[in-house]
């Protein structure tokens, strides 16, 4: 156990360093973007006097290093600062965007795991059989369709032609649960590619595991085929899938910009896009904190799961 | 029409949109039976003549994300302007020809020197029941002009000496100006110059005096407002109005087609063409809403030579630019701002493409491709506005026919306007609506804040000052014409067109003005809009 705890502590401290590095990098890159929040706000009315005045009111006339230091000092006390554009607290932006993003991510994961595992196990039952060929072809085909194209296609068919589902979440973008029907199409689009990639991983893992000596041994001892499949082979097949799943969850929590834009959902991706366009550095930095922390924690979780299912493979950092 | 109506209802019912279903019920209650039981107008099915009261309209606009605010003095985007217009009022507003129309100001009267204006306020009420007073007006203008702030309308209010301005009584404001200003009413209609309640500084739940009162607001998503019965111009027809934000054009049109909204602002020309004759929705084209052109910097080579500028004016095939860059949604320009507006010099003949003359002018100016002195210019453009990159590419091929090499440089969208104000020599530009007077004072005087063409001529400034000191409107028009003749002959704006602004609306929506350019009085005028049955 102490071995495991040391590993955890090491991984966590590396994670904190990684987050700090990401923050510094994001700050530098944002500073390196042409123009600042004052120029972006002035837009097509670039009166130099007004831009200078805006810069002053936003404290952008202070040196960048000083602003970063101030912001970092605030972060240590849990204060993420305020938006340059609206003057509202950054935490407000993050909580507002996190809600819809979490709803989408949770729904997608809840459907993704059973569907992907089920399809993978089904396909692996008889390698090269009709079911396998059907599932493999279908998943490969769907995987090849970009989210945007799939989204447009689904909207045209289900919302505009058949009139069965709302085409966008307009007006409910920050609280989609108030109108659950608006979630159906976005979740379908989000599911499409991960289902394909993960079911293929599960299938491959299952085929390997079922062909492994321990499965053959179990069968020779008369263990029923179903039990071999679910209790012996599947846990081994899940180790690589768990890591892919963590990556998928990370992708979902980053706010999937294409889906948010297409369906007008006010998630983290939309907030990030707007903040970058407005050069709203405190909001960008706040999002970097959230994304960095989530990524580190999710990968840690995935490694823990992988170690649990297949201890011999070790933790692939 | 009946069949589309039915299919729309099916869409709503199947979509499970409770808000949508409610709105439909509220806007007639006639269901599929067709009996006009709910309406107060009682004009029967789809009666266009008598507006019906009631219902909720949802309008989709592109917005400003989670950073949005309802402070009307921070108005920046079309969505901001539409929301501010629903909640607030200005002293004046621009009519469809960009002449100032009285709003909260009932009338105005200048002194003989045109530097002191007496404004009489209308009998108007705030949403909390208090009357709109002269103190509110002075507070609002002083807030905008605060030297510590950066409100957009600040530059417009610059001519007013607010310290010397006063309120002799509750309904009278006397504006003391720093100089004679015959077109002063334009200032009262300036973008963002809204009147707010005395000492109002927090606009999370704004108290306005506009046709609708505040109900709820989620930045970047939705603003819900309801009818203000005591509005000075008469209560709106709608019970409720909701502004929803959808940044992508595809989302706006899908929401409209799917019955999630009844009004969609800013559609693409291609979308408009696809749905214009389908009967599923109405398409409204607001002509003359955005000037499209190129900026030629008149203070630097090669455009410091007016022959080169004229040659460029003659190179442009304006119709080709409209067709290519705007997908045909617009009309050609004559290198002058404000076609169809008050004081527009429409007596000046339309300029046509004349490549021979252009080549001759360029040769005279020392640019002859035949002897190796051909002209090469860099044209700055950016995906910051629809059609900019396309317009640059089209002009490049047109210029090649006159022996001019144009190198197109695509710049950063967020900083484009600031980059091209003083930088470069030749760039794409566009402009929203404003009076010709504002166009001149903001862009074409020696001390103008955004003088992108670097047009600085003392005699031109004098003409402008002279116009502002001229009380007689005909004489003033003559002075504006002189200024415009000069700009047409040798100015720095190559204005090739005026784009339509395209709206979509559900078939049940009535009362949308079709002739009001974006940002004018009758644009986004939801107090005049009503919902017909079905």
TrEMBL record, chain A:
It is a multi-pass membrane protein. InterPro entries: BPD_transp_1_N, MetI-like, MetI-like_sf. It is found in: Cell membrane. GO terms for cellular component: plasma membrane. The chain crosses the membrane at residues 102-122, 134-160, 180-196, 251-271, 283-302. PROSITE patterns: ABC_TM1 (PS50928). The keyword Kinase does not apply. Its main location: membrane. It holds the Pfam family BPD_transp_1. CDD domains: TM_PBP2. Belongs to the binding-protein-dependent transport system permease family. This is Peptide/nickel transport system permease protein. The lineage of its organism: Bacteria, Bacillati, Actinomycetota, Actinomycetes, Kitasatosporales.
TrEMBL record, chain B:
Residues 101-435 form the Solute-binding protein family domain. GO terms for biological process: peptide transport. Residues 1-25 form the signal peptide. PROSITE patterns: PROKAR_LIPOPROTEIN, TAT. The keyword Cell cycle does not apply. GO terms for cellular component: ATP-binding cassette (ABC) transporter complex; periplasmic space. GO terms for molecular function: peptide transmembrane transporter activity. Residues 33-60 are annotated as: Disordered. Residues 33-47 have a biased composition (Gly residues). The keyword Signal applies. Keywords: Signal. This is Peptide/nickel transport system substrate-binding protein. CDD domains: PBP2_NikA_DppA_OppA_like_17. Transmembrane segments: none annotated. Pfam families: SBP_bac_5 (PF00496). InterPro entries: Peptide/Ni-bd (IPR030678), SBP_5 (IPR039424), SBP_5_dom (IPR000914), TAT_signal (IPR006311).
